[in-house]
Sequence to fold (255 residues):
Amino acid sequence: MKEWKIFTLIELLVVIAMIAILAGMLLPVLNSAREMARSISCLNQQKQVMLGFLLYADENKDTMMFSQKRGDTEDTWGGNAVVLGIVKNRNHNLLFCPLRPLTPVTNPTSNWRYQKSAIDGNMGQYRTYAMRMSNRDFGGLKCSFDDNENTGRYFFMTRVKQPSSMSMLGDSANMSCLRVGFFVPDLLDERGTYGFFFGAHGSNKANFAFLDGHASSMNMQSFVDTNSKELKANNITGRRMYLLNRFGTKLIFTL
Fold:
């Protein structure tokens, strides 16, 4: 007759402890893998949006249109992208990072820049991706036409010397609430309380889509080094670049 070995209480506790230790070792790895997958999804979304703008520009004399007019559904780049068909209305989630989902308001008369946070339900100018769309985001480069200092309208691609070094779209945040973003980064202007956010993916990284159509995950210094190339190619020096670190502190880089 076969004898069955019975575990003692101590042996059972040892097995449970080992399982708990293994679980503790695996969970950070699984969380890291999940974060990487979402970061890749974010990169793909930004690239898709950027390619949509580039296709529109290709059909319109190399001119990207960010805003047709003020005070209507198309007065931000996201709303304009939907109005022009660059981003299909059913694909509005392309405008939001998978790590920070936001829900558009249901009121059809509401301006597209006004969103409802999926986190706290508050209303505000929420958008997790910011687009360089106003003159103050280009710091003297003669590639953007802006009929006022707040709302960029047209961008002339043929005037850019190094499109692969010019980021156009990226993760953003508001200094008062890092969980949500804003539709413009004020990259070269210190007045804004928002900007490109280097804490959206990991401790010091953010995702960006560039004018040549590629997308990349970058740390702060790499971003500064890359984006300063277009300014230097146009003999523009001494400009300051303003970026948000993972704590929401605005850091200044002199180019």
Q: What stands out?
A: Helices lie at 9-58, 77-83, 220-233. The mean pLDDT is 77. Residues 12 and 209 are 53 Å apart (CA to CA). The first strand starts at residue 63 and ends at 65.
